[in-house]
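Troubleshooting: if your tokenizer reports a length mismatch, compare against these two reference records.
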Amino acid sequence: MPAVSASTSGALKSLRPGLRLQSTDIEAAAMWGVAAFTGALYLVQPFDWIRKTFFEKSEEK
């Protein structure tokens, strides 16, 4: 039984080259994640909450 390198798992080696994860697949998933986050931020628009929470200092009594 040949040793499997640390960078390649046995499950990925058994797939045909056309079905393996490609760098463009990972790039596309990351871009969709950025698009989904941006869309959610646009829908919610929590900018006042962010300003009050992180940038304004509250007065302590």
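Reference record two:
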Amino acid sequence: MHEQPEQAPAAPPVQLVTVSFTGLGIRAQADGNTGREAWQRIRARHPRVALAAGAYALLPAVLAAASVVRLL
């Protein structure tokens, strides 16, 4: 008979996700984890939210760069 390999248990679903935008950057929190661990969980469960947060944070930088280039 064929034995099936043991699979790692699935990660529990994210229960609480917080993404905060500040003047200094973006802060993410997922299930009590912050920083890189939180972003990994958010990307795994909500890839569109992670993409939208990155695009939203990048927008002011692009606008500021465009303004500086136009003034030169």
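Descriptive notes for reference record two:
- The first helix runs from residue 36 to 45.
- The beta strands are 17-22, 25-30, 33-34.
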